[in-house]
Structure formats: C-alpha cells, structure tokens
From TrEMBL:
This is 1-aminocyclopropane-1-carboxylate oxidase11. One of its GO terms (molecular function) is metal ion binding. Signal peptide: none annotated. PROSITE patterns: FE2OG_OXY (PS51471). Keywords: Iron, Metal-binding, Oxidoreductase. Belongs to the iron/ascorbate-dependent oxidoreductase family. Residues 103-205 form the Fe2OG dioxygenase domain. It comes from the Eukaryota.
Length: 257
C-alpha cells in the first residue's frame, strides 16, 4: 500500500501534499525538509490515527488503503500493548504501568518510501536520529538500508521476512531513567533498483496538557540511582522536535543531568 502511494499518480499525491506535520493525512517528500540542514532521499505518507482530536475524518484517508490501514492499526495496538507490558515488567513495575500513564495513546502511521537513488554516496535515505516518542514499530520490506548505531559503529539491521523491529524512543529512555536507551538509527540512500518501503507506527504520549510534566518515574529513582534527566513539559518536547531537522540534538541530550 505504501509502495502504491509512493508510485501513485501525481494527482493523488498532490491532493495530500502538505508540510503541516501536526495531524490528519500528509504526503511529503523528505518529511523534515524545511527543518533539516540537507535534503534526504525519501517520500513519506503519514496518518495521525489517535487521539481522535488529531485523526482525520475517514474520508480523508485515501480509499486505496483505508481498510488495510485500520486492520494494521488494530494489530499494531495489540502487539504494542504486549510489548509495553513486557517493558513495564522489565523495569520491575506492574505490567500496566506504562499504559496507564497514557504513554501509548497517540499513534501515527508512517509509510516510508525510498526510491532508487542514482548517487547514493551523496545523501542518505533518512538522516541519523533517535525517535522522539515512546516506542516505534517498523515493518520493512526486504530491501536493505536501515542501520543502527552499536557502540561507535553503524551496523546493518537486515530485514527478516515478516519480522517487526521495535525502537525505544527518547521518551521511554527518560521515563525509564535510562534503563532503556533510545536507539540511534538511519537509512542509507537506496542503491537497489527496487524501492525500499517501511511501515512505521509511532506510539506517543496522549492526554497530556501543555503544562503537565513528565520525567523519570519516581519509583525508579533512589539514592543509588538518582534521576538522570530533568522533568520537562509538553511545550518543550514539541518545540524541541519541530524546531529542528531529524539530524540534530535529541531531547535526551538536552535533558540529561
Ligand atoms: O525506514 C525505516 O525503516 C525507518 C524509518 C524511521 O526511522 C523513522 O521514520 O523514524
Ligand atoms: Fe526513526
């Protein structure tokens, strides 16, 4: 479906081409184009799925993938909740703790489309970044290109057929007081003739007023393990993300004590 949208006729793309990143359905080329220092080699479809206040009316979602998207979202929520339970337990907390904090209430679907790039040494497909939210689920096709930073080195994250990849985001790193680390990753410009396609589900905090604060969970802070990050407001979080390209400093670096 993302591949179809990527290859779609220009009229369809143009109907959804917007650079507003705060809700609804968008189609854009190089989604952080106006914020980053250099252009990268991808097209991008996104749909805000929840909360309802930012989700588009159903008829704004292109007909060609309305049903598939709803089905995929349902599965992504199921698996996201299972993983959230395991992540809570991994912190020694009640399995429902992260969910009850409304950490998984905002969901954004992203369809990343990386067409063949004739000069892949001149740019990347997607700049080096950490995901700002809580958890990301990736479902890539079999065209290779994703890399993660391991130690000081970029390592290929080769796709397994049908395999899902879960990324910890900055938010979860902070809430877990650094027990989980957000992973730095990037996508190389696609040198294969076939397009690289990756389906992305970002889970983020819902139900969060402008002046409410989040920070390391109090039960994870002790004399032996003092807070590693300061608390922050929604305003700070949103401004940090939207004032820069993907390629510059993450929130984690700014909040580290
Ligand atoms: O294309 C991919 O597999 C990764 C996409 C990604 O990292 C992102 O959109 O945040
Ligand atoms: Fe990412």
């Amino acid at each position: 479906m993302v591949e179809e949208m990527g290859q779609a006729i220009w009229e369809l793309k143009a109907a959804h081409y917007v650079r507003d990143e705060h809700g609804g359905v968008t189609f854009s080329s190089n989604h952080d184009l106006l914020r980053s220092q250099a252009a990268t080699w991808h097209d991008y479809v996104s749909v805000w799925l929840a909360p309802a206040a930012v989700a588009p009316p159903a008829d704004r979602i292109p007909n060609m993938y309305r049903r598939e998207l709803a089905a995929w979202d349902k599965h992504a929520v199921e698996i996201g909740e299972i993983v959230a339970g395991l992540l809570s337990e991994g912190l020694g907390l009640d399995p429902k703790r992260l969910k009850e904090l409304s950490l998984f209430e905002t969901r954004i679907f992203g369809g990343m489309f990386y067409p063949y790039c004739p000069q892949p040494d001149l740019t990347v497909g997607l700049s080096d970044h950490t995901d700002p939210g809580v958890l990301t689920i990736l479902l890539p096709n079999q065209v290779w290109g994703l890399q993660v930073m391991h130690g000081e080195k970029w390592v290929d994250a080769n796709p397994l057929p049908g395999g899902l990849i879960f990324n910890i985001g900055d938010f979860l790193e902070i809430v877990s007081n650094g027990e989980y680390r957000s992973v730095q990753h990037r996508v190389l410009a696609n040198s294969h003739k076939e397009p690289r396609v990756s389906i992305v589900h970002w889970f983020d905090v819902g139900n969060w007023g402008d002046s409410d604060e989040h920070g390391p969970l109090p039960e994870l802070i002790s004399q032996e393990k003092p807070a590693r990050y300061r608390r922050f407001t929604k305003k700070e979080y949103v401004e940090n993300f939207y004032s820069k390209g993907l390629d510059s400093k993450s929130l984690v670096e700014k909040l580290r004590l």
